[in-house]
Amino acid sequence: MIVNLARGQRVFTSNAFLVDGDRTVLVDVGNDFDVVSEVRDHVDDLDAVVLTHTHPDHVGNLGAVTDAFDVDVWGYDPDFAGVDHEIDDEETVTLGDHDYVALHTPGHKNDHLCFYSEAAGVLFAGDLVFANGGFGRTDLAEGDRQLLINSIEHLVAVIDDDLEELYTGHGPAVVTNPSQDVELALQAARMG
């Protein structure tokens, strides 16, 4: 089960995905809303928090979540306050009932990760790519357009046409031909 706990929130926040299963994980915690209550509406406890990256809209609720659930936080940058465990490029992490490969995909932010499970047909793309060919902004600190393009190219090389579900850091999930949206994002990023 994958639920976007930030859906319908009218605040400056990223999506926050609860992935329930053998290892109940929150992928990003969002910002400026009561994510703890949202988690408790679905499950009693969390096993981990996993971060796609550390922009404020993705980590603003981190303290509230770690206080409420006494849970460890996993991310690419162990020097970021609040990250307890480092996730390396191509390391395997369990989200829910499936193993995901962590893909280091900088360009939007240096510590950006995507998580892909071929077996589940699911990709958590953070702010690298969005529905309808959107892609992460590169005008913030650590943003780099060419690096972002390289990261999307890497993502395209890793995912396959069996991708069924694309969960992004903002906006709706893509459940109809999500590989096409990733390809469109690559085309759009190259054109800009």
From TrEMBL:
Stretches assigned to the Metallo-beta-lactamase domain: 13-170
One Pfam family in the UniProt entry: Lactamase_B
Cofactor section: Zn(2+)
Gene3D superfamilies per the UniProt record, alphabetical: Ribonuclease Z/Hydroxyacylglutathione hydrolase-like
Record has Metal-binding as a keyword: yes
A GO term for molecular function: metal ion binding
Keywords from the UniProt entry: Hydrolase, Metal-binding, Zinc
Name this polypeptide is given: MBL fold metallo-hydrolase
Organism of provenance: Halorientalis brevis
Lineage: Archaea, Methanobacteriati, Methanobacteriota, Stenosarchaea group, Halobacteria
